[in-house]
Design the sequence.
């Protein structure tokens, strides 16, 4: 639910119910609560500052506009007491503010994951681990039609993320990084495959902690142009 709320479309049309005609002019950036009917009961769920009311729904304007703190008050009112006692509301507020204010995608993604974890009752120590918000992206080795390509040919991940290469078609394949086209200080041997994947469905997974551009190729099919680019930000 939390991810859905903070990921709500900012391009949706605003549909407001308010008796104060001048409120929008005075406040500038609106802070809204979305009205939903759950199990026959009307409940309010907060939207992040600046997020407009989704088309076809009713929203109410909040009366406190200092930060995302009003969002936390609304969140608290919709959780049972036993769950509230496990939450670190200050940490949730800090992460939500980072989601709103950061201009870096990876920073926003990590903050969003931490906030969602805290809202689910996971401890602050667990969600603060660098590995908690990490993701794994998949790259096929050989297209579904049997072409000698990596799919996708270009992949972007955040530092700490991993890539899983999957032997798909027209194997055997491997992943060999070009030692002249990887970030300085990264060991080409450490991140490349020693063997080739012969069976469909076989995988190779590698975690990347250094930002930069990595160019790689399939050794058996390099002459056919089977190569890819990984960008770590």
Sequence:
């Amino acid at each position: 639910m939390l991810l859905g709320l903070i990921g709500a479309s900012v391009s949706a049309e605003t549909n407001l119910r308010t008796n104060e005609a001048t409120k929008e002019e005075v406040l500038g950036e609106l802070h809204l609560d979305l009205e939903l009917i759950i199990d026959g009961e009307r409940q309010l769920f907060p939207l992040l500052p600046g997020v407009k009311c989704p088309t076809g729904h009713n929203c109410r304007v909040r009366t406190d506009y200092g930060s995302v703190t009003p969002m936390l008050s609304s969140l608290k009112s919709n959780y049972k007491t036993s769950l509230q006692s496990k939450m670190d509301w200050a940490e949730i507020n800090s992460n939500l503010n980072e989601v709103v204010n950061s201009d870096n995608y990876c920073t926003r993604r990590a903050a969003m994951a931490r906030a969602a974890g805290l809202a689910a009752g996971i401890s602050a120590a667990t969600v603060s681990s660098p590995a908690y918000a990490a993701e794994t992206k998949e790259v096929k080795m050989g297209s579904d039609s049997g072409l000698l390509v990596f799919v996708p040919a270009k992949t972007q991940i955040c530092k700490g993320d991993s890539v899983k290469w999957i032997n798909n078609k027209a194997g055997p394949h491997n992943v060999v990084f070009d030692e002249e086209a990887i970030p300085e200080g990264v060991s080409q041997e450490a991140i490349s495959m020693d063997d080739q994947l012969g069976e469909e469905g076989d995988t190779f997974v590698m975690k990347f902690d250094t930002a930069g551009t990595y160019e790689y190729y399939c050794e058996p099919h390099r002459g056919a142009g089977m190569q890819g680019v990984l960008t770590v930000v």
